[in-house]
Amino acid sequence: MGFNAMGNWGNQVEKPDINHLPIPASRGSRHYPIPHSNMVDMTMKTFDRMGFELDKWEYYLSNDNQRMLAGFQIKHPDLTSNNEWSLTGGIMTSTNSTISARLLLGQNVGVCDNGCVWAEHQLSHKHTENAANNLKYMIMDKAETIFDVAKQIEKDTNNMKSIRLVNSQVHDFVVQSCRDNTLKWQHAPLVLEQWYNTEHESFKARNQWSLFNAYTDVWRDKNRFDLSSRTSKLHNLIHDWNNDEFVGQQTSEDYLLGDF
């Protein structure tokens, strides 16, 4: 789970490629395009002042260099250290007035070529004279919520780990996920194969967290660029399923029936 660029965004590039782009020209008296490198540097410096480290950067430029996507992971000494999920950020911007300057934050951040965005939090500002400075203060204000986001992710993860599942429940859930188009029918056997024969020691526990990762393992193999929207739908289905009468109603006797 992390940053996903979906669609025809041109080419993946490196930071020096961003730095060496020419200064963009204004397209009108109210248009003050923020150079891509300035957006990246402003984001880095603002998070750094607040004690955050931005790591694992990815950069994408459109073929005409006027649109940019950048993704990164967010780290902080007070954030829970966990190899199972990470907080992710993204920058989406243009110098030709087609896209406002945006900052995206969350566990799953995705951007499609048509402008569709998946992110728990979004900041946006038109390319006006004070846009960069205003965005800096917007980031500082939003950064206060990052810890709350991390706590909620940890809470949701621990909740899934606490819910034990028997095979019959897993089969019912997989069917339901296909019926509401969260999972393709042809991928159902692949999810079940991951459930029964997981490759990861940490997912051998027979709980909801292991089932969740059975899905994401299959999706990473099929189409990693679609992972953000798919996991969002899966989270929603799990939430609805947990509020249903079928989950969490098993007694200790049920777990002795050997249906695992």
Explain this structure.
- The protein has helices at 15-19, 36-49, 131-143, 146-162, 167-179, 188-196, 208-222, 227-242, and strands at residues 3-6, 11-13, 53-61, 67-75, 87-94, 101-106, 109-112, 117-118, 121-125.
- It has 260 residues and is α+β, with helices and mostly antiparallel strands.
- It folds into 2 domains: 3-145, no CATH class; 163-256.
- The strands form 2 sheets. It has a 6-stranded antiparallel beta sheet with strand order 2-3-4-5-6-9. Strands 1-7-8 form a 3-stranded mixed beta sheet, with helices on one face.
- Helix 2 packs parallel to helix 3 (131-143).
- The longest helix is centred in the middle third of the chain and has 17 residues, at 146-162.
- It starts with a strand and ends in an 18-residue tail after the last helix.
- Residues 245-260 have low confidence and may be disordered.
List keywords for this structure.
3-stranded mixed sheet; 6-stranded antiparallel sheet; 9 strands; elongated; disordered C terminus; alpha+beta; 8 helices; 2 domains
Q: Uncertain runs with pLDDT below 50, 5 residues or more?
A: 245-260
Helix content: 25-40%
Tally of extended strands?
9
Largest sheet: 6 strands, antiparallel
H and E string: EEHHEEEEEEEHHHHHH
Q: Can you give the mean pLDDT?
A: 80
Estimated share of beta-strand residues: 15-25%
Radius of gyration: 21 Å
Give the helix tally: 8
Q: Could you say which structural class the secondary elements and strand pairing correspond to? A: alpha+beta
Number of domains: 2
Overall geometry: elongated
| Subunit arrangement of the protein | single chain
Strand order, sheet with most strands: 2-3-4-5-6-9
The end-to-end span amounts to 27 Å
